[in-house]
Amino acid sequence: QFQSQLTASLHDAAIELERAAQIREQEAGSGAKVVDAVDELHIPDRTLYLFDAGGIPIKPATADQWVRDAARRAVDSSVVVEEHEIPGSQTLRLRAERFALRSGAVMVAVAVADKVELEDRYAALIATFGAAALVALVLVSGGGWLLVRQSTAPIERSMEQMRRFMADAAHELRTPLTVLRAQAEIALQQSRTAPEYVTSLRAMDAESQRLARIVEDLLTLARADAGERPIDRQRVFLDDIAMDAAEAARAVAGAKHVALSVENFEEAAIEGDPELLRRLVVILLDNAVKFTLAGGEVHISVSRSDTTATLVVSDNGIGIPANQLPHVFERFYRGDPARGRADVGTAGAGLGLSIAHWIAEVHHASVAIASEPGQGTTVTVRIPASA
Description:
Elements: H1 2-26, H2 36-40, E1 47-52, E2 57-59, H3 65-77, E3 79-86, E4 90-100, E5 106-114, H4 116-147, H5 152-189, H6 194-226, E6 234-237, H7 238-255, E7 259-265, E8 269-272, H8 274-290, E9 297-304, E10 308-315, H9 352-362, E11 366-372, E12 376-384
Parallel strand pairs: 7-9
Antiparallel strand pairs: 1-2, 1-5, 3-4, 4-5, 6-8, 9-10, 10-12, 11-12
């Protein structure tokens, strides 16, 4: 991949030189010269040459013999790509491309780069792998020391879950990071108009927001696992929390043309953390809207018995197959990829329901999901009521 990127970079540099030469030819009436095209371009870490059809250097006026030879071969074969080693010094990669001016004159554009750039990337990659291996070794060693007191079966289960979690987390983080890097590289390759830069920046902003959400969810789960997230228990009303969450979700539902209705709201006092409880309701509403097609409906209700406050979120969306229901609370589980068709481009990382399940557990609540493919899904949360 690095080799391909370097070759593509040289090709882009040669193309830019050709364009500059053609533009200077059009401006010849104002006294400009085609050879000035080389002076106009400033491409970092790239050496540019312009040759005539006879392989004679035009700009700069001199060139090494191996560069001249490559330019002469390009006159016959259109494109020449080769490497040249300078003993005890460096290895250079060259790309020569033949092109014609509007006047019919044949010229050759040559771009040269030092392969040390490629070697630097290799070194960075190896350093990254080394650091990752070191971190993994420390984590595994520390985890093994703590888990050695347990029986063999729990140790194996824990290690397997750790490996899967790390692999899934790396996979989810890699996608937005790759998109961010690609957008930045494309924007920096050549000059662009202001609207084009705005488009690139907006794309980068969207990916950075997605990355921030994934990191925030991972941090929440990590703190939950470590018991570091304090629970601010106080007397609150589940109906008020649900109503507030529903109002926040209306904008998302409206954008998808999904109707969000509030039904059967009874006053329901409970003991719990209002911030976490609101997040639980938001997660359930977000999932309901996400997997409901345009024109569908999402309903939310709160009721109370003597001992239990009950929150119900239902939709008439695409539903969940029966074989996937036991796994919906697993981290990074997103089921059949076809479910993403309901909300193309907004698929999450599969952490929302895991967080919702944890919030329910710390509030001694239960979460039940009933679903029928093509008919919709109903999520019922039962929380101990407060006097």
